[in-house]
Queue: 4 jobs
Job 1
Amino acid sequence: MKAARIAGRAGGGKGNPAALQPDNVSLAAPRRRPIRSGLTRQDRATGNQPVHSLSAIEAAADFVHGYLQPTAQHCWPLLCRRAGTEVWVKHENHTPIGAFKVRGGLVYMQDLKQREPDVAGVITATRGNHGQSIGFAARALGLRAVILVPHGNSVEKNAAMRALGVELVEHGHDFQAAREQAAVLAERQGLHFLGPFHPLLVLGVASYLLELFRARPDLDTVYVPIGMGSGICATIAARDALGLKTEVVGVVAENAPAYALSFAKGEPVSTNAADTLADGLACRVPDPDALALIRKGAERIVTVSEEEIMAAMRAYFTDTHNVAEGAGAATLAALLKEKHRMAGKRVGLMLTGGNVDSDLYLKILGGA
């Protein structure tokens, strides 16, 4: 019944912007109640992460559902047989930008516009999905958005961001270099700088976990990919707010192990490179606030190889006919790696995105 109520709130009621095509999005969705995140002014300034209450997550979900329908969670028979257990896939690859991050962008940008109505615009760095999230939200709320990406970034993700009206700037050899330049340009141009991790991003993202946990409160374990940490921290926040005992397991790429190394050591550990086909996992400098929450609320972190990620991408297509980008498929890769450990468990997988360049995807499907 709870899941049905969530779906009902997001339906095509009068004036619901979810029915609009992207070219027509110009107004914020009417909020059914204020989003009271519990953030102090200092929290907003420093990015400190408070504990999000259930009422705050529900209010954020109400706002997000004005722009997008709740995504489905499906139990695919072939995938269950492959994994040897009951598996529920949360399809965040079916949002308007093909990734979960749109939820955090909407909540953050709405809060920013209320706090700083005269803000000139926002600037951030991304490998793709975070930039699409900010582009989608900026367009919906009438704000300028400048997005920095590293040279050699996904051609199709770049095109998707440009289609949302962002000003795309290419800089540096990786995400960290692009992020540092974004901070410089923010000062020069008087733009609001937004990093990839912030309590309001976590609050918005938690809306999809609210959907999942209310539909399937009986999950024993959920696997969540870790980029900069908003997804796994939102998972922990929603689980705790609902009082569930579900274990949360993070997933990183072996070629981008910063969070796994940091989790084991108990303090941020940076790496010199993060060279993985899974753009959403390509982190080499962990966020200290995110790490603190992960160490407190996650059971463990699993590392998966590039070969295991590609095999999981193929398995998703074979078993469900869904396109999964590298980060989105990493959770399945981790489950298959821990297949014997998970036997007899009820498992949730976050398919966090489906944005992968077609030429790369074709090579992966072909086994290259």
Note: The chain has two domains: 58-100+199-365, 102-193.
Job 2
Amino acid sequence: MVAEYVDMQAMGERVLLLRRRANLSQNELARQAGIDVMTISRLERGTKKRLEVEPLVRLAKALHVTTDHLLCLDAAPQQPANPQPIASPARVLPRPLKSRKAASVG
């Protein structure tokens, strides 16, 4: 199932973490990404409601990650609470090779 919306709070937290790991200030990241510093600030605080595709791509490039990573789409899918066992197909074992007698040359 695909989420119906982007979790902007989670994206903002990821931007903050990546920015700090890169030892960048908000101003430096904004300059490198060509984005207004207030956009970075609002993203990190979780008050930004949406982000257009172009600034998202520039932000991902500046942080050296994919847009999927920024959008938190690259995480492993969550397992259902009560997973059903998967029936495994019957194992087919290879037949043993028949031994062949050497043909006599006469």
Note: Residues 30 and 38 are 9 Å apart (CA to CA).
Job 3
Amino acid sequence: MKTYLYLVIIGLVWCGASNAYSASPESNTSKLDFFHTFTHNIPAELALAKNDNKFGVMVFFSTPHCHFCNRMKATVFNQSSVQGYFRQNFQLIEINIESKQLMTDEQSQTTTYSEYAGNNRVRLTPTIVFLDQQGNQTYRHVGIIADPKEFIWLGEYVLTGQAQVKSFAAFKMNKRRNNNP
């Protein structure tokens, strides 16, 4: 009986902890509305970003069965503040690292999504890569960001060039210090 009670308590604590950082949705916007319709052509996406005066492209590497990817879609990408900020500043594409779908990479070479992920050393999902208008990688983040505000901070971190001068952890610490009275 003690073991059963112990397992129930552990289960309740774990369930509560896994939801501790999840945000409640601000809107009913579909999670699929976050990403642009991918042309399967990175140079074309970069040209669209340049034409729309955006920083560049944000590539979200994922798999359909990635729990953390799906959590970000359900609790971060569906937030209107996140959608507004990222759509204004980046072309947003998702790449399934297991897919054999053909695409064109930054060097105008034909490859598959899975080969593209491998060429970008994507081993874990989610991995988020930011490309400037010239196709240069400016920052790479591996792992979940469960807080919508922190995800917007990631965009600001890249957009303002802070990725070139300090770590994202230092940037977040500074943002927390300045945003909390």
Note: The beta strands are 56-62, 90-96, 102-104, 110-112, 127-132, 137-142.
Job 4
Amino acid sequence: MRRVHRKTGRPSRVKATWTRHPKNMIPQAQVALAEAAEWLGDWHPLAEQLGSAEGLVALSSVTRTLRLKPVRDVPSLRRFLRHYQVHLLLPLELPAIQCAHGHAARHEVRELVALDQQLAGEPVLKDFAAASQRVGQSQLKKLRPLRDQRLVQRYLQAVEAGHAHGWHTLVYGVTLAIYSLPLRQGLLGYAHQTTRGFIYSAARSLQLSERQCRHLFDGLCVDLPEAVEALIKEPAAA
């Protein structure tokens, strides 16, 4: 969006996020969702490993867990992302977000902590538990100023006391709930952003073109809306 500068008469760029007039103001919820999608997209724990200084070697432990060959080219990256969606995203990450969202919406701190501890027992999550918890705890601490959000404060206290881990998926679900963001939109946004994060992190090591990245993304995400819709219609696990 551009306006004309009063003194120079030249167009001047202004931020499209906020303006003084309430009618032109983007709701805070939309800003929060965009921020949450950003830190859980490019900084998804697995994507972080994929694009780290160690390159694709850092992903070897995860590919072994999923019984895959190392990611070295476009076909192997596509196989990895398919397995990620089948074995992590759809059965674990999205349901965890949905459950955390429900617990936060109902102010169920104990249930949220129990879910946090339950995730620690998932074998497939062990290879990137440290990264997940680092990302989740970092974002959870940013919510500390929300003093009126008792669930956030108590969950943060549980994490700091060592009674919970602060998984990034749970913090994301809590974030959706406290800002009253649509769960369906949040789940699909997470799936899209994490997939995009993987692809663009790998692009640096595999020297992928923008066209290749977009082609991969389109092919991998075509079925995600249907999967999210199916998850929404199922009652969240307790």
Note: The chain has one domain: 27-233.
